[in-house]
From TrEMBL:
Name of the protein in question: Methylmalonyl-CoA epimerase
PROSITE patterns hit by this protein: VOC (PS51819)
UniProt KW keywords: Metal-binding
Residue ranges of domain VOC in the record: 3-131
GO molecular function ontology, one term from the record: metal ion binding
Length: 134
């Protein structure tokens, strides 16, 4: 893992959260994106060398909608940049971690992503991210 890529924050109202974080961070988001495969809308802010990702579910079967039905708004996941997501997935499987994806999938912000189950990561949902070459 090469870098803390971003913190993912689950929010109920993306517009209100975007306004709040714009004020808090003193900067506008650099990207807004809908991720149809995950049924989420996202907004990204740069904070130094890392990012904050706001996530709002767009349907009842979205993982974010389900998360917010059980828990309050807040940290949903921690994402780490990796150079080779396939190799990192194989390494983690070999170390006994449970992955939520058999293969990487396309995520927001031009990334291939895979998630590590919170039960095998001390209660934290971990996302692996690899930038897709243009």
């Amino acid at each position: 893992m090469t870098n803390l890529e971003h913190l993912g924050l689950a929010v109920n109202d993306l517009e209100a959260a975007t306004a709040l974080y714009t004020t808090l961070l003193g900067a506008a988001p650099y990207k807004k994106e809908h991720v149809a495969s995950e049924n989420v809308d996202t907004v990204f802010f740069r904070v130094g060398g890392s990012k904050i990702e706001l996530l709002a579910g767009t349907s009842p079967d979205s993982a974010i909608t389900k998360f917010l039905a059980r828990k309050p708004e807040g940290i949903h996941h921690v994402a780490f940049e990796v150079d080779d997501i396939w190799a990192e997935m194989a390494r983690l499987r070999g170390e006994g971690f449970v992955l939520l994806n058999e293969e990487p999938k396309h995520g927001a912000d031009n990334k291939l992503v895979c998630f590590v189950h919170p039960k095998s990561a001390a209660g934290v949902l971990v996302e692996l991210c690899q930038t897709i070459a243009d």
